[in-house]
Amino acid sequence: MNVWIAIAVTALGCYAVKLAGLLVPAGALERPLVRRLAALLPVALLAALTAQQTFADGHALVLDARAAGLGAAAVALVLRAPFLVVVAAAVVVTAGVRAVAG
Hints:
5 helices
């Protein structure tokens, strides 16, 4: 029964956040600072998620094959490779490092 309570509370919380977003006056969204933050926030969140998934294992900081794959993807991005090539480079390098490291 506790699971259903958690689901209901989460659903109500999501609805409340959505409602709060709809109640923000349009004038507040037109401000330059708000527009700039709205443009930069998704990039910052994606970068934080990538860093957390690459360099964390529970509560420990790790440096393993995922870091090498991220490095390969970064190099491919600097070379302006297409998205599929970037993903393929990351996958191949990560798998290669894991195969060599055992």
